[in-house]
Amino acid sequence: MTEPGRRERKKAANRQALADAAVNLFLERGYDAVGVREIAEAADVSVATLFKHFPDGKEALVFDQDADREAWLVAAVRERPADQSIPQALRQLLHDERARQVRTDPRFPDFLRLIDTTPVLREHARRMWLRHENALAAAIATDTGLPENDPAAQALAHFALEASSLVHGRDDPDAALDRIFALLDAGWATTAKEARHNRT
To answer: Which of 72, 129, 131, 143 could lock 161 by a disulfide, CB 3.0 to 4.6 Å apart?
Structure first.
């Protein structure tokens, strides 16, 4: 009988092999020129196994680390330093993650170009970020002392997450992020001040 730990490790290894094979093929030949059967063969698994790990299809293979993003976003709000605003914390998270990817993966610029030049991947990346909006908005509201469905918390979550798609394809994405979050920070300062006033 297979041990649960070993089974989970095998699943994780298959998932990583599929994601790596997909990105390698997409970078080499372009997203539209590669089929799921080729990806499965390159990873030495069946097509059924590919869809078991990635039921959303080919696009999901490009964004294999999505499961961790919601936890990162919520932690950025809850665990930020006392002197850091929520927009500043979210900006720092996006900056650090981008810098980490550039540092650890020499193909990262090519990966970004792949997304920028493939409409279906651009749209999938946008949807992927925005599906964390409610969890992020709830964390923002709780941290600030606002009602659960407060529209300002929802708006900050929405536009902070949209920032990632807004900077795709720009010559200086870091500078673009800085401008976006400077705007969000200035607006959020008033909301946070009002929330503190209402609690006293």
So the answer is: 129
